[in-house]
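Query form — protein Glutamine amidotransferase

QUESTION: What is the three-dimensional structure of this chain?
INPUT:
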Amino acid sequence: MCRLFGLHAGLDRAKATFWLLQAPNSLSLQSHYEPDGTGIGTFDARARAMVSKQPLTAWQDREFAAEARHLESTTFLAHVRYASTGGHTRVNTHPFEQDNRLFAHNGVLGGLAMLEARLETVGTRELVRGQTDSERMFALVTAEIRLADGDVAAGITAAVNWIAQNLPVYSLNFILTTATDLWALRYPETHELYILDRPPGPVTGAEPLVAHSHRIRAHSHELATRRVVIVATEKMTAHPDWRLLEPGELLHVNQDLAIGSHLSFGQPPRRMIKLEQLGAAAAASQHPQVPA
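ANSWER: The structure tokens for Glutamine amidotransferase are given below.
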């Protein structure tokens, strides 16, 4: 199953080190079981989206690891891919960038021919460069944001409602970031997605922030003394305040780290896909076996 990781550090840019090679529970080690690509998205000092990604397991991607140690941004978006749709190429690797927004998705949706037709109608088919359902979903979100005069929440709501009514859906979990904001959706209940509003640690003598999972490890002395908001596919620390998002919950974190949440999708998609209805590759990508 693909893994999502989003971090918002507020108004001030921060450095966060993503340990890809050395940590005992690192992305490097666990990427042996998530073999199809790694990527991280940030924003530079001029608020321009920057993406580093390769269709490689993290343990093979030395350039990615070197860059990740020195990245600086107000928001971070990381993704580890286990492919369900599209080949193992850079263009199919998350995150994706459109209109200076970044997007990463965990799940499967069907009916891509219908979705393609919809993108032609709303005028964003040209934004799609690869073969994934995820990039096409993002293109629909982008189209609806444009139609809503830049209102991201309204665009997300319109796009997801259209998908839920018209396409077969297994999971639509995603994180979308700009230089100032982070949005996250858990829908439906197929996969988990967690949020941690982490308060600052002690001003002196603080332990570094360590956020790790089977797939992703983030480690930063700087963030230990700052409040940060983290969204992730699984709990990444032993902190007691991790909260599982409700199915259908759309989360928004703004530049002041104010958190808004709304149960935007109260009903499951009209055409839910069961695991046994997925092809073998897609089914394996959603629930891969992880060693104990």
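ADDITIONAL NOTE: The radius of gyration is 18 Å.
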